[in-house]
Amino acid sequence: MNDILSLLKSHKSIRRFQKKPIEKDLIKEIVEAAQSASTSSFMQAYTIIQIDNPIARKEIAHLCGDQKYVEEAPLFFVFCADLNHIDLACQQNSTAMKKGYTETFIIATIDASLAAQNALIAAESMGLAGVFIGGIRNNPEKIVKLLEIPSNAYPVLGMCIGYPDQHPEIRPRLPIDVIYKIDKYSNEGEISKIQDYDKSVSEYYYRRTKGKRKEGWSQQMASKMEGELRPHMKEFLAKQGFIMK
């Protein structure tokens, strides 16, 4: 296994960071690595916002569900799906960009996500660590107002980065033959494999929390999916110009 594979397979979400600033040249490297991610049709349909203002950080941490590490991390990014660069390119060429299509929403969302993944991998390669913050979508209208994000853009996720101050065990993933298929989709035999996986996840949490937590993966998913998941997002996206036609 080479160094890149070792890095990819050793990923852990880190939420506690040393009180040590990240050098500006490292931040530049992270952003440039994000820019090097694959992008659909060369659209580069995303914007990365670095939040340094401590008042804004505190408010974002609250809006994300009182996630204190959003406020405390040395570096915090918001990755936005963004079609405004493309709109300007169209205007420059005397063309009107057709707006509101589901496909452009998908493209921009994927572009932002790929850029974010590249950014985190780059950070980890330099001895840093971090965690994605999906809670940025808990109160997206307030985030948009706070960060002055225009129409045809929306915050996909946040990201905390810093020098790690914790070293948790790697969380086990689903068995490879549950997520990896050849030639056609089949979930034959997956229930028993997920049951075995539940035991591994339960043991992981038991060790990590010293017996305070021991639910399996399927229990977590059942609990999460029995309730509504950010039902405000469809209306919010339409207000931002992503009408999904």
Automatic annotation (TrEMBL):
<keyword id="KW-0288">FMN</keyword>
<dbReference type="InterPro" id="IPR016446">
    <property type="entry name" value="Flavin_OxRdtase_Frp"/>
</dbReference>
<feature type="domain" description="Nitroreductase">
    <location>
        <begin position="9"/>
        <end position="163"/>
    </location>
</feature>
<comment type="similarity">
    <text>Belongs to the flavin oxidoreductase frp family.</text>
</comment>
<keyword id="KW-0521">NADP</keyword>
<dbReference type="InterPro" id="IPR029479">
    <property type="entry name" value="Nitroreductase"/>
</dbReference>
<dbReference type="GO" id="GO:0016491">
    <property type="term" value="F:oxidoreductase activity"/>
</dbReference>
<keyword id="KW-0560">Oxidoreductase</keyword>
<protein>
    <submittedName>
        <fullName>Nitroreductase</fullName>
    </submittedName>
</protein>
<keyword id="KW-0285">Flavoprotein</keyword>
<dbReference type="Pfam" id="PF00881">
    <property type="entry name" value="Nitroreductase"/>
</dbReference>
<dbReference type="InterPro" id="IPR000415">
    <property type="entry name" value="Nitroreductase-like"/>
</dbReference>
